[in-house]
Amino acid sequence: MDPRHLVVVGGGMVAQRLVEALRDRDTTGTWRVTVLAEEPRRPYDRVALTSYFSGRSPEDLSLGDPALWDDPLVTLVRGDKAVGIDRDARVVTAESGRTFAYDHLVLATGSYAWVPPMEGAELDGVFVYRTLDDVAALRGYVNGLAEERTVRGVVLGGGLLGLEAAGALDALGARPTVLQVDTHLMSAQVDLGGGEALRRLVNRLGIGVRTQSMTTRVVPHRRGGVGRVELADGTRLDADVVVVAAGVRPRDELGRGSGLAIGPRGGVVVDDTCLTADPHVSAVGEVACIQGACIGLVAPGYTMAEVTVDRLLGGGAVYAGADTATKLKLAGVDVASFGDAFARTPGALEVVWADPVGGVYKKLVMSDDARTLLGGVLVGDASAYASLRPMVGRELPGDPAAFLLPEGGAGAPDLELPDDASVCSCNNVSAGTIRHAVGEEGCHDLGAVKACTRAGTSCGSCLPLVKKLMATELGKLGVTVSSALCEHFSLSRAQLYDAVRVAGLRTFTEVVERFGTHGRGCDICRPAVASILATTAPAHVLDGERAALQDTNDHVMANLQKDGSYSVVPRMAGGEVTPEGLIAVGEVARDFGLYTKITGGQRVDMFGARIDQLPLIWRRLVDAGFESGHAYGKSLRTVKSCVGSTWCRFGVQDSVALAVMLELRYRGLRSPHKIKLGVSGCARECAEARGKDVGVIATDKGWNVYVGGNGGFTPRHARLLAEDLDTETLVRTIDRFLLYYVRTADRLQRTAPWIEEVEGGLDGVRAVVMDDALGICADLDEQMARHVEDYEDEWRSTLDDPEKLQRFASFVNAPDVADPSLAYVPERGQVRPATADERAVLVAGTTLEVRS
Amino acid sequence: MTTLDDVSTTWLTVCRLRDLAYERGAAALVPDEVAGRPVLTQVALFRLLDESVLAVQQHDPFSDAHVIARGIVGTRRVAEQDVPTVASPMYKQVFDLRTGVCLDPAGKEPVAGRSPDLRTWTVEVVDGDVRVAVGGGAG
């Protein structure tokens, strides 16, 4: 039987979820689906639009697995808008004139930004804040004006979207003022007390706020564009740009045109199965008027999409009601509201805790017996949001006030969530589903749990809770999830880093005596402490007690190979090497019989060096002008580059010069794991910089910087941190990013998983390194300046120190005797280690003199 | 001068105590016998903070390379006691330095025919000399 045809009108987040859910569940292919999208692109993450200002590219906003759109049963029609429905013939007509016959139709047209009636709304410089194109146009307009003067922005509307728009203007360097008609900010979500606390927090960011302000007129400037706005009370405010974020209205014109019932405040009326009065037409998301109202949030839309798919496949799902919990994502401002935030339930009690100085306001709404949680408002510190929200409608253990006190205070009792409590409301994932994934399906880390359950993959606000649930569950399985470094330290690496830095300790003995539990360390904590001390109290790797902390690679400053010999890699910064340098390296390799190979980091690796040969090899290399390449260290490895604008016909910037500068700046920086950088001179990206921890790509305006890429077992593409930076800002940004990573990552954690674990993810990292959200940037800058100043080549200083050179003896009683167990055979014109069988023949019968 | 024929020597002085760094191994060659033939065997010497010196085989049974002296020294809690240990630099197996017993095979098997445990030698420090019991004195 041919599959039936589902037509979805609208290409937003809810449409995407609907198609995803359908293709996930309709395994026998009973439906094929066509999505009609008005925008010229695939569905994208509209909730994260604001992050587009802080440097993300449109591709970072993509949703889900792009392979969905390659599915043969899925057709995405982009840039064509549905203009009419013939419900009798079951045909949709598009603007292009194309027609689409359907067996079932889903309206997912969403909503549009409502512009209040006022004079001047059509002027240049008045924007709405709804689509990627709106946001891109706003960005272009502000950037254009910013070249001439400080841009003053006015945002009409003090709700979620208005505050995000103000944050976006601020990120663009404009000076925003929010005009709110109501008595306080976010009046749909928080009460007056919360709104006041929120205003103070927003003011601190440099965003002005005027409440009870209705705009009546936008007045043009004589040079064109917007000049000022006028308020109902006669006030005039100068403004170069006006962003309207006064609310949204459902795009229900197709429903109206085809005679479907429309709600009192708009929206296509549907029942609890998301079906209209026409059994062949459903509506989901913001366009649907369900249970009497349209809801402008994505989570209820997702629920409607799931209900619709279930019904299409013959299931009996119903829409049970919306979780209208919200959390504002604005750097530096923490706001969340959930459940019955306004205490409208009869007899509801409010428990309030406010700290006006700290800008914190928290309120829990409880049932009349003060036991059942009904809702709450959290401003200034929403850390309890993830664990409290799923408890709505349930009894809280103990005194509710305990949940409002600052962290580290009396301490809230641990919440044991019931299995049916919803943890991720975006994707409707319950606590039980997460427990099952961990306990039964073997998901033992956050990434696996996310992939398996989809929890935390949309807005991410539930991730702290997901992590906690996972840890508890793993604990029950007997899997240790303690963040303790090893049996000798109960602190995590990040905690130990802070402790050592603050206490100013300089040796392992001091560290283990002060912060250790017992004993003298092990192969886990010793190198970790060595790495910490390397940036908190810099000294040579072989100085005093430090030598005993190093892995053999750091101890002999070479890379151990499988037969016990080492490989040697001199630095060739940016992959640049002179002919004389290459000749010198070649001569060393030839004279010591080393196997040579070009590395992935654009330099030469020489294999088969015995431990006692290392100082001799390095004497030659240092004399030829080379220095340690730190190929052996958990530290900066290389900065790979393409040839750049000096030679390349397409290059727009000098990538080699930048790569050399960066490599010389960060060389020797000890870190939780190896760090690799890349610099490409144009968007062709020949240096493969996005596969690096830090990737820099030239633009005609400066540099884009990407972070969190790696190859290896789990390859990751780096994601955009910031765009069009000048070189000075770029270097400062990388400085801070690297040191923030060095300070807070786990042992052997590359940057990609570290970014995932930083509070707020990439946005959180950006807030710290670009906006100094933690106030540590001056400290980081100072620390990097010290690193750059104090750097010395550890091989050169080793060669100058006879005591250090003693460590390279083959045998303490026969320093001139070569290790007799090493044996090599020829292969392709070079040598390779002999196999066990070959060695039995080559090594047997060795007799040597030893000193007595 | 000690040569391979000289297996009757019970104590072989290998170095001065001060030649050994604390908690960092050093390799030495000692005369030995394998299947009746005299050979030189590599041992790994470790000087601990209490000035004791312990010796185990330099050969790592899990990687078949002579590298144990280059491992990281530490301790491990075994039955309420902190046992001195070394971790192989190759695949991170942990060995008890006093007995040579492998405390943690790190999920690997020794190479064919090898015991996971390390052989040990008795060591004494006399007047600042480090002496290893060889031949009949092998522990």
UniProtKB/TrEMBL annotation, chain A:
Ranges of residues in domain Nitrite/sulphite reductase 4Fe-4S: 633-770
Cofactors: FAD; [4Fe-4S] cluster; [2Fe-2S] cluster; siroheme
EC number: 1.8.7.1
A Pfam family hit: Fer2_BFD
Residues covered by the NADH-rubredoxin oxidoreductase C-terminal domain: 325-390
Domain Nitrite/Sulfite reductase ferredoxin-like: 561-622
Free-text function comment from the UniProt entry: Catalyzes the reduction of sulfite to sulfide, a step in the biosynthesis of sulfur-containing amino acids and cofactors.
Full protein name: assimilatory sulfite reductase (ferredoxin)
UniProtKB/TrEMBL annotation, chain B:
Domain Rieske-like [2Fe-2S] residue range list: 10-132
Oxidoreductase found in the keyword field: yes
Keywords linked to the UniProt accession: Nitrate assimilation, Oxidoreductase
Record organism: Cellulomonas avistercoris
Protein name, per record: Nitrite reductase (NAD(P)H) small subunit
Claim: Oxidoreductase is one of the keywords in the record: yes
InterPro entries given in the database record: NirD, Rieske-like_NirD, Rieske_2Fe-2S_sf
